[in-house]
Amino acid sequence: MCLNFVSLFPSNSDIFMPSITIMAKLNLKINGEVKEVDVDPSTPVLWVLRDHLNLVGTKYGCGIAQCGACTVHLDGTATRSCMLTVSMVGNSEITTIEGLSENGDHPVQKAWLDVDVPQCGYCQAGQIMTAAALLDKNPNPSDEEIEMAMNGNICRCGTYLRIKKAVKIASENS
Amino acid sequence: MTSIKTKIGRRAFIKNTSLASGGLVLGFSWLNSCKPKVGLDMAAKELSKEWFELNGYLKIGENGLVTILSPNPEAGQNVKTSMPMIIADELDVDWKDVMVEQAPLDTGAFTRQFIGGSQALRQGWTGLRMAGASARQMLKEAAAQVWKVPADEIKTSGGMLSHEGSGKSATYGEMASMAATMQVPEEVQLKEKNEFTIIGTSQKNVDGMNIVTGKPLFGIDTHQEGMLIAMIVHPPAFGLQLKSIDDSEVRSMPGIRDVFKVKVFNDDYVKTFFDTRTYNEVAVIVGDSTWQVMQAKKALKIECEPIQSSTETRDRFGTTWEQHTPKGLENTEDHYAQMRSRTEKGGEVRRKDGNPEQAFAKAAKVIERTYTAPFLAHNCMEPMNFFANVKDGKAELIGPLQKPEFTEQTLSARTGIPLENIDIKMTRLGGGYGRRSYAHWLVEAALISQRMEAPIKLIYTREDDMTDGIYRPTYHAKLRAALDADNNLIAYHVNVGGVPECPLYENRFPAGAVDHYLAEGWTIDSNITVGSFRAPSSNFMACAEQSFLDEVAEVAGKDPIDFRLELLDRAINKPMEGVTNDYDPARYAGVLKLVKEKSEWGNQDAKTSRGVAAYFCHNSYAAQVLDIVMEDGKPKVQKVTCAVDCGIVVNPDAATNLAEGGIVDGIGNALFGELTFKEGMPTKKNFDTYQMIRMQEAPKEIEVHFVKNNIDPTGLGEPTFPPIFPALANAIYQATGKRLYEQPFLKNWAI
Ligand code: FES
Ligand code: FES
């Protein structure tokens, strides 16, 4: 079979297992539960969620706080989890899309279904988390306030009008 | 009544695959013989020479629930909802009793699933109807046998069978197992179009709940026990290749398992159309977790060397062509300078009607303008990724891709694993737009897994996704128009090319609407890799042509819509002899008239400036009127009115969503989209510098109007994208008096 790999080094990976690991055990409050994770403290929350806790609803889009795909709530505030290192979380409560509601019945989720917002859907968890945090703080946002709050979330599929409409419906219904 | 054969020769499209477990299961697969009519975009045009085949199945359980396996990958065009709707309608069931699943790529007899070229519904339409109608017929025959009445007296509705004469009725579920013993009919009756009950109604996205609750739908969400994470490190610039890697620091980093090079294609392999790969050899780092691998990626040192110029043979579905890749580190300014001078040499004449030289010579007015556009990166929100587990001569692959059928063959050729041992599971695509047609990362993932003897997930970082791309080419068009003394368009000349592809469609409007016409095209070789991007070629040609016609109309002293309609009238009423045009001028005029009416053209308020444009591509027609107002010296898009003719609209609200998306995406790319190169290196790597449209720049309102007709559905994923570029340019001109010739518009927009 395929033997075209060119490796300059022996592939016995055991030899290279890290000798000095800087791991730390941390307790995180996520979606109402305390989870213990054993990770490098510089790891962004995004990857702790996705790789270590199998909470993959929070998405990776850019890794530099530019696209909003990774948005979670940190004590209720919309936060880009790709730039939030796990060591910075401390006692704060993290809520992810999986923890936003039990059955997908948060007013924002309901409005999203009502308006049938998603196209590919990849950005939508981040959009929903940003919108939910906005409405928590400002239950009746104006168009401009919605635009301001949602401007950090990119949607290449271009669903912005439906997102805005869904935020308004959620605002009326909550 | 339309009836349709379910068999051609010995080839059966519908197969009864019912198992002993009860219920009726029909597998379906068909070849679509539609000739590459006209006007298909590049990839689709090539593909249409082949036969199309789709597959899926439908199952009617004894409980009456219908499960439909949707055959095509879902990338947000909502085919996973609309394709099953077509089956369900012909089957005559209630949509609420239908469950939809994604069909895996079946490596057996039934394959050929792909997305691209807005072709899914167009190609699938007849076959999907046939599948539903066949099952309905078999249910009727089952009931006829049980009730001892003629099958053609049995009526169906909402998942029920009934016979008036005898007063008998039964649910589909009750008859399903019996129906499974019936012969698949050789010919079935399709519904008349006015009998549709589900097609033409708005149905919600079947994956909606899974999306809003963050369920693992995407390839990047794949997780398996013992899975490792892999990432690539590629040369920093086009024109370079990997020479060696220095992993001394990296190997001892926490969680790192291995570092090695992967060669995607063997040297003697003849690459097919979708086998484009920028850097054939890349460094790979494998480790326990994404963050650990990302750290190692930053620390890995690689040494690169310049590539040599090369010519390789590529195989385009049976026809080969020579692809020349020059050496060197390319620069954007050089590209523009080369394109300028290449234009002056003229290109290969692809169509010539009448005597354009003479017409230009005797014209009362000649207008000449030049349009350019940059390379574009796809920027799918889900970066490229794939899961692979290659073990014991078998390969399991999970992830997002657009052309699984082709990629599977590539993988088999590369690894020697026979097709039957390759299992590709398609996940939802976090955006495709053409990028995921070139699934080299699937091959990379498989090779990495094979080497590691472990399941792995390969993830490109955003930076890899953007800098190791297969981009929309950069283009340059010189357009000329000749008007006679009465301001009639008498000649039109398009001279267009690109690095490294030419976007010319020589048989499109205004070809066929003007007596003297000349279309020529050229290309300039490059080592920057390019490929399909939402509405390939059209995404540039629309802007050049429709911005130009706006200017020509102005010089002619005519209203821009009336000017276009006049030309189309000419094509309708005085068709030219001996030429073929891609488009149907009546449908083209139809969308212009509809947008004129719906936008109340000519009635805008004083502070609003409007632009109009129309375009034909992917067998569909779109016209748009875009309104802007100036705020603090900056244009703000207020409203877009869009008219579309894509034939029968299967799922109107979903179709509207898709049309809105094309418009928003188009405005974003027109204003900001640009990838430039310096010494072969992409100058943008992430969204901090590559500007994407955000909510604040999106139009405040979009109205989408569909032309109502009974024409079989044509594409919708792409046709609303190209014309919005020129509609915006034309509106900005109305507001500022400045014509825009260069994209992205923001660049030359000194307001
Ligand atoms: S991934 Fe965090 S903002 Fe893009
Ligand atoms: S729905 Fe596809 S990126 Fe937003």
Describe this protein's structure.
The complex is a heterodimer of chains A (about 170) and B (about 750). In chain A, a hairpin with a 2-residue loop joins strand 3 (about 70-75) and strand 4 (about 75-80). Chain A has 2 domains: about 25-100, Ubiquitin-like (UB roll) (Roll), CATH 3.10.20.30; about 105-175, DNA polymerase, domain 1. Chain A has helices spanning about 45-50, 105-115, 125-135, 145-150, 160-174; strands at about 25-30, 35-40, 70-75, 75-80, 95. Chain A is an alpha+beta fold and about 170 residues long. The radius of gyration of chain A is 19 Å and the shape is globular. The longest helix of chain A is centred in the C-terminal third of the chain and has 14 residues, at about 125-135. Chain A contains 5 helices and 5 strands; from the N terminus they run E-E-H-E-E-E-H-H-H-H. Chain A has a 5-stranded mixed sheet, sandwiched between helices. Chain B is α+β, with helices and mostly antiparallel strands and about 750 residues long. Chain B has 3 domains: about 1-205, Aldehyde oxidase/xanthine dehydrogenase, molybdopterin binding domain (Aldehyde Oxidoreductase, domain 4, 2-Layer Sandwich), CATH 3.30.365.10; about 220-310 and about 380-465, 2-Layer Sandwich (Aldehyde Oxidoreductase, domain 4), CATH 3.30.365; about 355-375 and about 470-750, Aldehyde Oxidoreductase, domain 4. In chain B, the strands form 10 sheets. A 7-stranded mixed sheet of chain B has the order 15-17-13-26-23-24-25, with helices on both faces. Chain B has a 5-stranded mixed sheet with strand order 4-5-6-7-8. Mean pLDDT of chain B is about 90; it is low at about 30-55 and about 105-115. At the A-B interface, helix 1, helix 2, helix 3, helix 4 and helix 5 of A face helix 5, strand 15, helix 6, helix 10 and helix 15 of B. The complex binds FE2/S2 (inorganic) cluster (2 copies). One FE2/S2 (inorganic) cluster (FES) binds near residues 62, 67 and 70 of chain A. One FE2/S2 (inorganic) cluster binds near residues 60, 62, 66 and 68 of chain A. Chain B: Pfam families: MoCoBD_1 (PF02738), MoCoBD_2 (PF20256). Chain B: GO terms for molecular function: oxidoreductase activity. Chain B: This is Molybdopterin-dependent oxidoreductase. Chain B: InterPro entries: Ald_Oxase/Xan_DH_a/b, AldOxase/xan_DH_MoCoBD1, AldOxase/xan_DH_MoCoBD2, AldOxase/xan_DH_Mopterin-bd_sf, N-heterocyclic_Hydroxylase, OxRdtase_Mopterin-bd_su_IorB.
